[in-house]
Amino acid sequence: MQTVRQCSACASRAAGGLLRSQADVLALQSDRSIPRGRAACSRILSSSACAYTSSRKATNRNTVQWKEATHTSTASLSPSIQQTEQLTYCSLIRRAASVVTDSTSTLLSQSTLALMDAFANYTKALHTRIALQRRYLVSLGKLSPAEEDSLQQAIFKQKAEVSEQLSECKRSENTWIKAVNLCKMAAEAAYTSGAQQASITLRANIQLAQSHVDEARKLSAEADKKLAETKVEEIQRMAEYASSLEGCGEHEIHEAYLRED
Predict the structure, then answer these.
(1) Which of 23, 40, 162, 237 has the smallest CB count inside 10 Å?
(2) pLDDT(229) > 70
(3) Sequence-distant (≥ 6) Cβ neighbours of residue 233 within 8 angstroms
């Protein structure tokens, strides 16, 4: 009986507390034979070892499956992470393209205003010169020498003003053309990067700037045309006046005046 109890204690320790059924304990206590008790103890230990081995295998199998599932989950998340990084780069590029379109649009607007102002000043200078020359032609032979000399000096000064304003127009137009080209490249880059709205807005600004510049250029061209007509009228009027003069001194002065243009 004591031997059976020792075997039972050994089985309990080896099985790690797996013998929880009272029926197994009663079966061991009722068996008076030591060999039969030892056989029963061996069977219990064997079944406990098998149960423990099965439990370890199941635990190892679950661990392997969990690792595989974790690896698979991580692998499945990798494309998402890469896609997020790619979307972030695309977003940054679109934002940069929008900033470039804003900057070039500002450059375009300022250069357009500068060119329009230059054309306006040039047109104004042309009209002032035309007015002075017509005044001189109308008053030809009616002014005193001092008045005539003062008017001629004003005409010469206005000629220099027209030349200076024309140079300013050329400088402003050169800057404006470069701004237009930069805007076109920026609009193309914005469209390629996906910032379609920024590209559309910039292209609309380019068209608007071109229309304003064309209008200002048209006004200056009309003033140039009037100046050319005034020059023709001046030549005819001076020829008529020269034929009516009796002396040659004044004739030479007027010829010098004509050569200044």
Answers:
(1) 23
(2) yes
(3) 134, 137
